[in-house]
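agent: user wants the structure for Adenosine deaminase-like protein from Favolaschia claudopus. delegating to structure tool.
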Amino acid sequence: MSTANLRQPLSALRRTLSASWSSRRLTLNGRLYSQVSVAGIPAEALQSLTPSQVSFIQNLPKAELHAHLNGSIPVPVLLELAREHKSTSTSVSSHIQEGLKKLENLELKDLNDFFGLFPAIYALTATPAALARAARGVLSSFLDGDAPQSTPRATPEMTREEYVETVAAEVERYPEDKAALIVSVNRTMSEQEVEECVGIARRIVGIDICGDPIAGDMDKFAKYFADAKEDGLGVTLHIAETTENTPADTLRLLQFQPNRLGHATFLDDEAKSLVLKNKTCIELCLTSNLLCKTVSTLEQHHIQYYLAQDHPISICTDDTLPFQTSLLAEYALLLAPAPLGLGLSEDAVRRIARMSLDNRMSVLS
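agent: tool returned. relaying tokens verbatim.
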């Protein structure tokens, strides 16, 4: 499956709520892990660990800094929303009906099956009440696990204020040191839309740029991101996600002086030099990169470069639903022996987890 084939569904995922969360509950080889189905690459890494190693990463203080709301809704919550939607909706498109049928019958076998769900998921979370339940399910599934803090990212839909207020109300069920909100700005938004997103400030710790990685004019965003930083908000950017991202686009985004970078898979030497100089934390999503084929193997993943440079990184899930992973499983990829994982020591994994905590954004007082 090529990256080009995945770009459209990936860009559709960016109705985001990215977070400092952890794993949920899954029975895997008789062990209880997470509510999400962990399968494939991360499952093999998790299965290779001893019980003491699993306990180590479960109890390790860590933060999830890059996970999207609509891509991380627990399946039981989606099924409840689907049943209610079916009983109350009078007209549903065939595309949405197909997604709902796959969800109800659990006909989810590969990555494309999961990506095909997203039109249905958007329909299921189109009201404030449904969105609130989805956000509550995501936050509960992560924060009731082993990650100490959550910073959701939400790209406003509905009215922008209504969307953010709905998600923020769920975030505010948790203490400030557990949960906060990042507002994501889609690269295709107008200046007026960007200004409105940046101006909403309820338990918001930062703003993000997301969406189709090769769309939009980033110059029009500069003023609003500068204003956000001046107001004390953090900045995180999806950057250099594909080989089609130009060096000029990457350097323009780096001028926003981001606190963190999402993916940063294809930085050129000039961009790497700036990132290293500024010690900008990289949000790394190992399984996502492997399944979307932006990297071919763990051995060739750019995490190796940043580990060698002793550079700040954070291990993240991206979207637990389509990638069938959890934060626990992503940490298993660090600890598992090659070729199932990177074979890092517990001390090295502990240090990486500490980096994720050190690079959280703070709620403004």
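agent: one observation worth passing along. Residues 74-124 form one domain.
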